[in-house]
Amino acid sequence: MSNNLLVLSAAGMLVTAFLMVGQKALFTAIRLYGAQSWLLGVVAVTIALADDRPPLFVTAALTAGLKGLLIPWFLMRVVDRIGIRREIEPFLNVPASLLICLALTVVGYRVSTGFPEGARGVAHHVIGVGLSMLLIGLFLMVTRKKAVTQILALLTVENAVFLIALGITSGMPLVVELGISFDVLLAVLVLGILVHRIVDRFESMDVSRLSQLKG
Amino acid sequence: MTEGALAAIGLAVLQAAGMLALAPLLRGLIKKMKAALQTRQGPPLLQVYYDLAKWLRKEPVRSDTASWLYVAGPRMYFATSVAATTLVPVWMAAAPLEAAGGVLALVGILALGRFFLATAALDTGSPFGGMGASREMTIAALAEPALMLGLFTAALSAGSLNLGALVRGLLDRGATFHPSDILALAGLFIVVIAETGRVPVDNPATHLELTMIHEAMVLEYSGPDLALVEWASAVKELLYLTLLADLFAPIGLATSASPELILLAVPIWASKIFLLAVAVTLVESTNAKLRLFRVPDLMAVSLGLGFLALAIRFL
To answer: How much is the pTM?
Structure first.
């Protein structure tokens, strides 16, 4: 039962990552990130119940609360405030991006068998999905123009790393996890301010314009 | 042997009749739930039946330039949709006519119906028919491979392309998930949305000429012809949802022909369809319709998920 739930949520996270690659509405992308964080919370709760690791409940609550609600809300507010076009403009078109992400997923899954924990059972899928999402997140970061979408990509990578950590380790100390959560929150806040500054200066969120800043 | 064949035909007729009778109810249900989400009262649950009855009583109005193709279109569409229901397990873990074909036959039969409807739409030479047909085929060309990939993924885990054997294989395997199941489910769900003309792809409630796809294709039909098209579309919708339920939650299907098991299977099937209908309603109510040129992107996502599901099976 718990194995099924783990596989279900992990695969659900991969689906949200793929949907993020495949569509261009900014708000939908933010909501997808929220859904992804909730699924990560479910993964954490399932592992906490199955392996009897109570500290993971705190992690799950933090994940759902901070990454599932607070950060999506904040990002939507930023987008609302600066009044940009709510469409993502990637450097690559959607079908090409999807093909590349397909290949990345296969690579991620293949690599996951290299971990001693990844060779068998459910951990194989959790680590495989985590590595694939990590690669997809990195890909999104380099192919998206808008600063907010790059933040989303960074957050996806963070979710992926978290998922891999859940799959491989028997759990980090609670203090470390608390620290990571607040780091992410701070990073998003700082990046939000940065986005405001970029928009102030260039009247656009397109970071490719930053390359015009030459002395 | 002949007795077995007779029993299969009897079952096929019963199942097709059941699907025909219940399909309009699903449409009405989705309309009602959509209205509830918009805090409207909405049309009565049985409105689709009233509409069908009204159209069937009326006299068809056909263009003078229409050939036999125009008349054949709705009939072929209806016939293929009904024929397709006999290839899918609905209440029993066996399709009535599963000896006649499996997944490929199902996809082929549905494609045949679509081909005839699209050709019939071109027949009168009206611009709307042509536009609708071209759009429908554009989307179908992308949705069909995605549908096949999703079905193949399920077939791979059950070890058979025959839907009856496939579902029995899934039942034997028990409730264990593989990530590829979820990926295939997500891919197939997008296909179902596209094939049934639901919101991110098409809007079943609009007759605004620039946005419609399926409605543009059947714009010229009236009376009994229109009733056949609408009824067949409803059957197809119910069929797709049943297929999703079969492939990803086959629990509850009657494994033998005993009456108790079948009586138990029907409400379980109904609740699965209801849950899927809720999902479709939520997707329809929370998404804006995509621009036509964005639709291929969505279909590419579903194709990608299908490929990935198949690939992960082997990793």
So the answer is: 0.91
